[in-house]
């Protein structure tokens, strides 16, 4: 049982974690720290948090576990501000979609207190944001990646592992660098492609006229282009190198496809499409 949990940033992810932990009975009091007064009020009125604070010292006081659930661009500043306020009994974790940059910022700001910072990333979310979008089932039966540090106290890792376990998530541990390389492929590049496609369609046509002719496949593929632009700016910039490496390979892949199309080379198209289908089917239709 966590007596008091402090969530920094009560949006989709921080709010959903608060709701899920409350429902599970794993936490006594949940304190929310929010920069945006509207989100603060909303999180309180929706019963997501028990208490809202606009000052970090008041928010952190007496917390056993602190969860950073702010956009990646806000993490470094928060680590710096919280460093002098952390007490020996506090365990700190985050939910950021990129891990190496968060680890670097935490190491620089937290000094010896890094032993109690356990980096995390729930592999669950939606294209919506803010406290109104939060829901208690978000993490149920989803994976949560932890990228523990060599310096971590084992008890701190166990506390974070248990927190996610209590909301029905499956916890796995990998290195932060491997995390960032894999997530560039299965999350960050797909979001970039969806944004790029929607941007292109918005420029070449009138989406409000043409989208009425789109079928389910388009809706599936483009859904994530409705994600928050600033949250995704931060993710792309934080994982710039792995993302750029993959983007360049993707450009080459598109070039190969384009050349095959230009030549009328149906054999090449089937070769590429069949390899792609097999790779996807082996995972999803096994
Ligand atoms: N959106 C998604 O599906 C997922 C997001 N993540 C990660 O979760 C984190 C939060 O993302 P979301 O919940 O989607 O965003 P969100 O926009 O729904 O929530 C973020 C909240 O943080 C607040 N905030 C921003 N800067 C702040 C600051 N300096 N101090 C206090 N509060 C501040 C905002 O007012 C907002 O309420 C990000 O780091 C993101 O990479 C992780 C998994 C899934
Ligand atoms: O909306 C979706 O399907 C997502 O992919 C949500 C998401 C966004 C960011 C993450 O780091 C993890 C999950």
TrEMBL record:
Domain Prephenate/arogenate dehydrogenase, first and last residues per copy: 3-286
Highest taxon, organism lineage: Bacteria
UniProt keyword terms in alphabetical order: Amino-acid biosynthesis, Aromatic amino acid biosynthesis, NAD, Oxidoreductase, Tyrosine biosynthesis
Pfam family, one: PDH_N
Enzyme Commission number, as recorded: 1.3.1.12
Catalysis performed (reactions): prephenate + NAD(+) = 3-(4-hydroxyphenyl)pyruvate + CO2 + NADH
GO molecular function, one term: prephenate dehydrogenase (NADP+) activity
Gene Ontology BP annotations: tyrosine biosynthetic process
Keyword Oxidoreductase in annotation: yes
Pathway: Amino-acid biosynthesis; L-tyrosine biosynthesis; (4-hydroxyphenyl)pyruvate from prephenate (NAD(+) route): step 1/1
PROSITE patterns with a match to the protein in the record: PDH_ADH
Family from the record: Belongs to the prephenate/arogenate dehydrogenase family.
PANTHER family named among the record's database cross-references: PREPHENATE DEHYDROGENASE (PTHR21363), PREPHENATE DEHYDROGENASE [NADP(+)] (PTHR21363:SF0)
Protein name: prephenate dehydrogenase
Native source species: Nitrosococcus halophilus (strain Nc4)
């Amino acid at each position: 049982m966590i007596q008091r949990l402090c969530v920094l940033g009560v949006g989709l992810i921080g709010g959903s974690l608060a709701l899920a932990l409350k429902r599970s009975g794993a936490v006594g009091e949940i304190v929310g720290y929010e920069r945006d007064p509207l989100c603060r009020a909303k999180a309180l009125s929706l019963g997501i948090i028990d208490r809202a604070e606009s000052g970090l010292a008041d928010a952190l006081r007496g917390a056993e576990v602190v969860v950073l659930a702010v956009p990646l661009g806000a993490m470094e500043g928060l680590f710096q501000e919280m460093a002098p306020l952390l007490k020996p009994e506090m365990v700190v974790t985050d939910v950021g979609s990129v891990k190496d940059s968060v680890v670097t910022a935490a190491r620089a700001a937290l000094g010896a207190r890094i032993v109690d910072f356990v980096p995390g990333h729930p592999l669950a979310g939606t294209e919506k944001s803010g406290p109104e979008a939060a829901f208690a089932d978000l993490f149920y039966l989803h994976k949560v990646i932890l990228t523990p540090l060599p310096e971590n106290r084992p008890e701190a890792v166990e506390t974070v592992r248990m927190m996610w376990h209590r909301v029905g998530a499956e916890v796995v541990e990998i290195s932060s660098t491997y995390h960032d390389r894999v997530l560039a492929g299965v999350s960050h590049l797909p979001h970039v492609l969806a944004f790029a496609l929607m941007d292109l369609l918005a420029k070449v046509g009138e989406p409000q006229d043409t989208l009425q002719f789109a079928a389910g496949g388009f809706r599936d593929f483009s859904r994530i282009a409705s994600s928050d632009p600033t949250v995704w700016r931060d993710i792309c910039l934080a994982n710039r190198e792995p993302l750029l490496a993959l983007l360049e390979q993707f450009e080459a892949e598109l070039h190969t496809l384009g050349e095959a199309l230009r030549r009328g080379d149906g054999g090449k198209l089937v070769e590429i499409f069949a390899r792609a289908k097999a790779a996807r089917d082996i995972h999803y239709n096994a």
